Amino acid sequence: MKKPIKILAVAVLVVSVSLFVLSIAAKSSGIYINTTPSLPLGFYRIVDEPIQKGAHVAFCPPQTDLFDDALARGYIGRGNCPGGYSLLLKRVVAVAGDTALIDQAGIVVNGKYLPNSAQLTVDAEGYSLPQYRLQAVLEDSECLLLSDLNPQSFDARYFGFIARDQIKQVVRPIFTWGR
Predict the structure, then answer these.
(1) Number of folded domains in the chain?
(2) What is the number of alpha carbons within 13 Å of residue 128 lying toward its C-beta?
(3) Which contiguous run of DSSP H or E holds residue 34?
(4) How many CA atoms lie within 13 A of 112 on its CB side?
(5) Stretch (H or E) spanning 94
(6) Alpha-carbon gap, residue 164 to 161, rounded angstroms
(7) Phi-psi region of 12 (alpha: psi -120 to 50; beta: other; left: phi over 0)
(8) Can you list the residues of the chain whose pLDDT is less than 50?
């Protein structure tokens, strides 16, 4: 009985180490492995393209109390961004010149309601979520970033716009699965 358990333990160890090495190799070659529900699961490649509406981007959140709470609650991971935050991947839904409205019903850009953008009042653990409000025309230095797939994502509906200089890369999906 002990041999199958040892074989299983060794197999799990080998797979874990292999995935770790693969993730380091992917990152050093400009590949992100997305395991969050904000975008489809899979592999994304850094591309030299402009930040524009519809693009997927990787950004460092601003170092604020809001993002400190998000890190403590597990909405975002630990990483190399200021504040110890991880890079986040989202889709750009509004850029300079776009009119954006954020309220509990969701996000409206240029008069069009964005699906899956309604704010929740509490998270799965019962913690209150920020109830961000915005009605503005975005300036050149601002972008609105959202997960249009995940109605529970921590994104613009809770923190508003992000400064363009916080966006580190534009990424393109190269192989995804799921949604």
Answers:
(1) 1
(2) 4
(3) strand 31-34
(4) 6
(5) strand 88-94
(6) 9
(7) alpha
(8) none
Which phi and psi angles does 21 have, rounded to 5°? -65, -40
Residues spanned by the domain of 146:
35-177
Q: Are residues 99 and 142 in contact, defined by beta-carbon separation less than 8 angstroms?
A: no
Element (H, E) at 12: helix 2-28
Task: Tokens 């090495």: give the residue.
Answer: 21
The alpha carbons of the chain give a radius of gyration, in whole angstroms, of: 18
Is 168 part of any domain?
yes
Give 12-42 pLDDT, tens digit per residue: 666 656 555 555 555 556 898 988 888 899 9
What the block records as the tokens of 53 is: 């509406």
Measured in Å, how far apart are the chain's first and last C-alpha atoms? 41
CATH number at residue 148: 2.10.109.10
Which letter, b or e, does each residue of 42-55 get, where b requires 16 or more Cβ atoms within 10 Å of its Cβ?
A: ebbbbeeeeeeeeb
Contacts 24+ apart (CB under 8 A), 81-87: 85/60, 85/61, 87/32, 87/58, 87/59, 87/60, 87/168
